[in-house]
Queue: 3 jobs
Job 1
Amino acid sequence: MTSITATPGAPTAIRDATTATYAAFIGAGFAFASWASRIPQVRDRLELDPAGLGLVLFATAAGSLLALPLSGPLVTRIGSSRTVAAVAILLGVGLAVAALGSLVGVVPVVIGLFLLGFANGAWDVGMNVQATVVEQRLGRSIMARFHAGFSLGTVAGALLGAAMVALRVPVAVHLPAVAALVVASTVWQARRFVADHDGSAPDDPGQAPRVGALTAWREPRTLLIGVFVLAFAFTEGVGNDWISVAAIDGHHVRAALGTLAFAAFLTAMTIGRWFGPALLDRHGRTAVVRVLALIGIAGVALFVFGPSPASAFAGTLLWGLGASLGFPVGMSAGGDDPRRAAARVSVIASIGYCAFLAGPPTIGFLGDHLTVLRALTVVSAVLGVAALIAGAVRPLPATRSASGASTGPPASQRTGLAGHRPTNPPGPGEALR
């Protein structure tokens, strides 16, 4: 990818792209949480034990992991706009198949979840690449707020799911309706994305995707950021998949309250992501995510070992707050150099999504031996690893393209997030970035 500078008329285009990017994140979160909010009902209908449920959820992670290595070259070749629009349709199909398949048996649900996961993986890379482009053009930290949009979508999806459970609306009615709404809105909004690069570089478009992807897989910083994202993705994913189940089975609350515990977790993540950028600019990426990791560890412990449902709800709030910024900070770190953002984001997401591959069967296996509630303690250990390697997400120093334009992260990120100022003086267009 090439350096992006402001052009005449760009403010309107960037405003539209910012709104469209928020819409893409919100739609992805709404679709995912709508599914996650109905997992207990699908489990009961299919009569699955914890290990069986873990294997069914594994299909989503498998689809994502297959999509992610292909997404970087795909986004670089056809652009984030076309990618997100295409996979939104596929996600809608997968969600509807999983919902209707729950009336038939396990196999159609697994097929639907595989399609859902494949689409979600490609959607994730596409919208994060667009988010890095918008962040570069705006010249300030905003990635976490895009992810707050995702969390806002998950809160809305979870609350709607809780209402559907309380009203006894069938899964096969609820989720296909969600699929139709998400597809229609996302395809329309993706048309407002800005180009992923300005097209001024002389790179051969046929070669750039292959070289970029291979190079990114050999970069130690990119790989370490991937492990960091994996730890936070595991923390977030386990919460998404298992909080409602653990609340119902472990704390013996009613189904609707179990779904509300899931909604509380998502609400805390949304708050952390919305207010996080100011903390990141002021204190730096590394310090903030380390503190949040410790908060997450405390939250998991309170949820698992709390003596009452009220303390468990408090634990879900701390857990969600602790998990809030790790994933978006990792994506932002991957996009520090916009020329390689697609390849690096694809690699980081591919590693991070291994958490969604390992999470469901790990918790399911441990749940059969320790109960699902006690199995969640593994999240604390994973967050400890994230705190230890958080230094990897420090922003890159500013570099220069052949045209003299800065290709590093926005100035606000290099001063506040890196903890130091760039060694090079401001270049052309720097004030706009």
Note: The two ends are 16 Å apart (CA to CA).
Job 2
Amino acid sequence: MIHALTPIAHKLDKVHEFISHLMSQVWCAGGPWDESRLYSDFVGLVKALDAEPNRTKKVMPRLKHLHDLFSALSEPQRRWLRIKFYVNNNVPDLCCGNLLSPARYSDIEKSSPDLAKELHSFFDDLYSDLLVSALVKRTYGCRRDHYKAFMGAQSVKTCPACGMRDLLTEDNTPVGAYDHFLPKGIYPFNSINFKQLVPICDICNGKYKTTKDPLYRDSASRKAFHPFVAPTVAIGIQVGLPGPLIDEAKAEEIELKFTSGNQQDEVDTWAWLYGIEEQYRSFANENGKHWAKQIINFSNRPGQKSTRECYEDHIATYKDQPLRDQHFLRVPFLEECERVGVFN
């Protein structure tokens, strides 16, 4: 990621805590169904939801039906699911490759297709229904409230994936969408875990990442940057240009290389996940000529320094604020312009 996000504590995290208790202490524990084993606040919330006149999917019967499906499993199978619940929700360690492999719906389907189907539907509805419910909002807030509070805590408010586009902030009336870093269509148990819900721009989310799995590609496991953990070394970007005639350069002629110390695997995953090479190449081709001409035109003003001195002044300023106005890409592009003789 171009920059890491700052996590927040929010009342809405309590709903995920309810589900964690339900999973570990009720469904995976076995025994007969008994509402009293649930957190009392959760029972009250579920009964209030089920009392809504227009609710077609009653929550408590779904909880009991899922409990019955869990009860049909063997004790080792339930123990495996309990472990995988915690593995799937420890996203930072999954990104580093420090944990056991996560569970996917396809893994659960092997032992119980019905359970995999019902869990998929349940965790989808938790995100799309429960987190926007007026009843939940009264006590814990809703997704919109969380987004406003989250963006208010961020010092950098551009997309953490590409760094190029502004996100909607707490000052905007509409709110942006959260991306499930681990796709909720692939991974169970973490659809309302805000430690893996990430605001990124619509282009990175809907056009490039879509449903890509950051932990696997072609069945091979891979490491990834976690959105809330900064890279140990800032991502380095190197630009290659075919020559000094940048007005004639085409996007496909711009070469890009990304590095980050001993985290090259994470860099490669990030670049693949968000189509970074294509995005940056297109952006540099459209804007690079303007960046270079800005310096040349500035130096041509009466009384100004030489083009070389103006270039050095601009580069120093841009390096002081790498996350502002795409400076992280502007600097290596202009350095390559200088190398190939654009400013001669």
Note: The beta strands are 178-180, 197-199, 216-217, 220-221, 236-240, 255-259.
Job 3
Amino acid sequence: MKILILKLIRRRVVRYLISGGSAAVTNLATLFILVDFFHIWYLLSAVVSFATAMTVGFLLQKFFAFKDYTKEKIKRQTALYFAFQLVNLYFNTFLMYVFVDLLDIQYLISQILIGIAMAVYSFFIYKHLVFYSSDPDKKISLLLCLSCSGTVHTEWGNKNNHTLMRCTSCGLIFVHPMPEETSAIYNEKYFSGGEKYGYVDYDRDKEPMRHAFELYLEYMEDALGRKGKLLDVGCATGYFMDIAKKRGWEVGGVEISEHAAKEGRARGLAIHTGILEDVDLPERSFDAVTFLDVIEHLRNPEQAMLKAKRLLKEGGIIVVSTPDAGSLWANLLGPRWHLVVPPEHLILFGRKNFSTLLFRVGFSPVLITNIGKHFTMPYIFQTLFHWQGLSFWNKIAQITNRGVISKLKIPINFRDTFFMIAKLTLDK
């Protein structure tokens, strides 16, 4: 059922009907309340309810139905939309008079019939005039999809001066062109302050997630049948490593940030600075390699998976948690999804296309699920700041970054991430 809903939502006509339906419900509900509860004259009520629905409709049609997130065209689109709606308002009022006073049709039924007729011709007006794009489905070839090796992609959105592409075959979303270097992002401020990306206070922001990390380890121990030697890729200051160590795992880590790696080493953790592909580690020496909220940051996840494969013992596992681009929440929001934050997040997988990549590399998924987390108040508001760019959220994050309130744990789960364990298969 979920897959069917996601496929339907990808169709513009379906999104249009949902948007129009929402506006219609707003219209009818407002009309009913004004007429039956406040006893306002039905024609005046029709004008007020229509205007309310018009505003709701514009927002849904622009950002949801036609997935137009451009700001430079919004004034023109608003003018066209409202001019068109004034014409609709005239016809709506005139037809309501004809249907109710002349034809003696009940007012709610009249509004439904008129609304259906308007919805049909409005779709073509929106598509070819109001939200018209000279090339809305522009396809770009020659790029090779990192999941399915497809070569045809559409422009999916733009954010932070980066273009995001979507593979037409498997739905993988990725930044293009891919930045050649992103290590500068992960400086000291990334882990403390989070001015542009990252955390207000990394270790404190991770503390509410402890239960989720403990659950990760339980699933890992079930999959392996034991504890063993673990390599945590993108380990930051070693928060997860420390939890695993206390449970009886032998731990090591790899971290791109020299600042974070140094912090972790000061705590007695064995952390290598760099990226996994460049770090010199003995082959067949780990039982598990973890990529927790890391895959989306990598320029080439396939190379990281291949390196992990060489590092694992027979029967070893890789463990991944990452944003789910195939989730309902991600599909509803599109490029406005809060986990779309290039160039911090470079590649966004769904469960299916990530499984495709793993099978090709030599892994077989044994567990795919969603695990919710708890978050601190400063982390939540900082995420809103990174998502929407409003300085208001950043100020609230700083205000809540004090005293007891900074340690409050808020459970949030939009089911837009997935947790996956995959076992190493025998070489072909």
Note: The first strand starts at residue 139 and ends at 140.
